[in-house]
Amino acid sequence: AQKVTQAQTEISVVEKEDVTLDCVYETRDTTYYLFWYKQPPSGELVFLIRRNSFDEQNEISGRYSWNFQKSTSSFNFTITASQVVDSAVYFCALSVMEYGNKLVFGAGTILRVKS
Amino acid sequence: DAGVTQSPTHLIKTRGQQVTLRCSPKSGHDTVSWYQQALGQGPQFIFQYYEEEERQRGNFPDRFSGHQFPNYSSELNVNALLLGDSALYLCASSGGTSVRKLFFGSGTQLSVL
Predict the structure, then answer these.
(1) Looking at the complex, does the CB of residue B43 fall below 8 Å from at least one CB of chain A?
(2) Going by C-beta distance under 8 Å and a sequence separation of 6 or more, which residues neighbour residue B64?
């Protein structure tokens, strides 16, 4: 079975601080995909990144960066110089090849950025 | 280019009633998945439709059923509503069933009283 754990229920930071959201996953499959989605108050899940299990290279996109470590089964997400608009619920998710694009989500981390 | 659209946005029902939720996928997408998101939790996969057939199903009872139409739009039906069915129901679309980026709608907030 697949499982995603986001241990941080809620994080509060002051604008311009850096913040890291943790994600730990469990799967016995060797081929899988990891995702991060953002859910603003409007409810729509916004895709941020997809990473496959064979690519451990870290990725940076603007103020966002992701650290994928298979040795610790973690896929952490860092926002540099946070902004109020970053306030949202962030979800980490896992998909294995066998089940196509069925996603298993973590419980989410609420990020509050205060001005 | 319209994204994934869902209707209605909010719905209030009473226990035992039946409900139908609707979803139109993003233009060019042929696969629709439905997710249930209870308050304070992550979305849970209900089922996926492709070529008008249910291709995958999550751990949900038979009270949850769906349909996909030739234009790729989809409906989610829930019979004999329970209080525990109160949740945000999200529709997601993609081009094909293989692992790829899903586009989500804003959801239908269902309240069962």
Answers:
(1) yes
(2) B46, B47, B76, B77, B78
